[in-house]
Write a sequence for this structure.
């Protein structure tokens, strides 16, 4: 074949868009505006499959939960701050209406009357809260009980419940602390507390043996024929030789920070995993 014949064959091949033989690869150079079907298919196959986009909901949801925990943590901190502020307010008389107490938890109140030591109840086991204890009996002991005693209010005629404070295990029996069994009319300042739900793994109250594991105000009031009003005495109400007051712990369970770290870490790790699984495979 002559060179002229070869040139004519080449021109015909290019004009027809032929992919034949030796010149197939060079057609892209001759026609830069065209894209082969195989190249388009390769580019399409490199994109993540449809289900991959759905998997992006995992890091997105984890990020949303982390942000929600940030808001919950701030709400909990504000709530704790509010409760602590309540304890420092000026003491007020106990309201005459029972329902008014529902909004007064941790609010200081002042009462005047006398104790009925014959109906003492014991919350146990309890450890000593050394903050604001007032220096009463058994300050060095760490295991014991809190003494709850009916209190007859002289001004209103009502009988309520007063948590006088903490005693060591060896002093739970009132016969071991006669000096602390104050008689006559006294004035007590305390914090309003409401009913307490039994937490998981906490034993049920053993009413028959006077062993109370959680604060069931309704049941305690029924046993002692008192009204379901419960006051925790402050440290300043401690008498020499008696239970140590000031055992109120102003605290709420606050584990939101670890939840924040967990959810944000999960969001970051799953997002990185998704990127490496799908987009690192895309040719550049």
């Amino acid at each position: 074949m002559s060179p002229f014949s070869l040139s004519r064959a080449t021109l015909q091949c290019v004009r027809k868009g032929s992919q034949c033989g030796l010149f197939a690869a060079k057609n892209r150079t001759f026609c830069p505006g065209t894209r082969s079907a195989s190249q388009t298919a390769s580019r399409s196959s490199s994109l993540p499959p449809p289900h991959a986009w759905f998997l992006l909901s995992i890091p997105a949801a984890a990020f949303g939960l982390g942000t929600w925990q940030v808001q919950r943590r701030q709400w909990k901190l504000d709530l704790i701050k509010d409760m602590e502020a309540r304890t420092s307010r000026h003491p007020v008389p106990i309201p005459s209406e029972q329902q008014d107490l529902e909004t007064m938890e941790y609010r200081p109140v002042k009462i005047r009357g006398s104790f009925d030591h014959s109906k003492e109840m014991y919350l146990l086991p309890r450890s000593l809260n050394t903050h604001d204890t007032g220096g009463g009996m058994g300050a060095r002991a760490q295991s014991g009980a809190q003494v709850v005693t009916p209190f007859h209010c002289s001004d209103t005629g009502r009988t309520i419940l007063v948590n006088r404070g903490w005693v060591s295990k060896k002093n739970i029996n009132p016969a071991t602390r006669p000096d602390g069994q104050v008689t006559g009319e006294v004035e007590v300042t305390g914090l309003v507390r409401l009913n307490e739900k039994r937490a998981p793994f906490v034993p049920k109250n053993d009413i028959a043996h006077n062993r109370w594991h959680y604060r069931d105000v309704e049941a305690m009031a029924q046993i002692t024929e008192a009204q379901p009003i419960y006051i925790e005495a402050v440290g300043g109400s401690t008498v020499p030789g008696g239970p140590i007051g000031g055992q109120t712990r102003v605290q709420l369970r606050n584990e939101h920070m670890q939840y924040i770290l967990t959810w944000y870490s999960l969001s970051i790790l799953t997002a990185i995993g998704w990127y490496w699984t799908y987009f690192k495979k895309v040719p550049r």
Strands lie at 108-115, 121-127, 143-153, 159-168, 186-193, 211-212, 230-233. The chain has three domains: 1-30, 55-89+254-284, 107-237.
